[in-house]
Known about the structure:
By secondary structure, this protein is an alpha+beta fold. The chain folds into 2 domains: 3-71, Orthogonal Bundle (434 Repressor (Amino-terminal Domain)); 88-183, Jelly Rolls (Sandwich). The protein is built from 4 helices and 9 strands. The protein has helices spanning 3-21, 26-33, 37-44, 52-62; strands spanning 88-89, 94-100, 110-125, 133-140, 142-147, 150-155, 159-163, 168-172, 176-183. Strands 1, 2, 3, 4, 5, 6, 7, 8 and 9 form a 9-stranded antiparallel beta sheet that branches. Helix 2 (26-33) packs across helix 3 (37-44) and helix 2 crosses helix 4 (52-62). The chain is elongated. The chain starts with a helix and ends with a strand.
Amino acid sequence: MNHRSDIHDRLAASLKSARKSKGLSLDAVAKLSGVSRSMVSQIERGESSPTVATLWNLTQALQVDFAGLLEGKTAPGIEVIRADSAPTINGRGQGVRIRILSPAEAAGEHEVYDLTFAEGGVLTSDPHSPGCREHLTVLEGTVLVQSGEDERSLQTGDTARYFADRPHQISAESRARAILIVQNS
């Protein structure tokens, strides 16, 4: 077996294994990576030599180690995102830090956020898709949750479940931290 086909075989096997271990279809990988479904399929069959940019897009979508692809290393059984490496959302809210805890492929379906509020911090949201609900658990501090015309005060340990398909807001009465789960129907 020549060196080139060995590399293609290992690359194809690694990408296919990573996709299957995540439970993703070819269509899902194409959507997440921006690489066409047919190209993903050709790469997985070892019939195409992807560019570095294409490989990079695929490894980011599949959350696999770019450098370890040719060594046959795929995603570990336990994925760890270190506290200082979790992606954040900026420009949403005032006096609130939003860390994204859910994987990229969950966007729009089931999202998890770590919210850290300064005293008086506010996170105001426009209505999400019809039937969308949020589940907010306060880890420390006190917050006021508003959904449409309803509002409730929550303290450490409290959980609120509310419709998010209407204007809604979370306000910190004191320094606070919470976990927010957004569940689209």
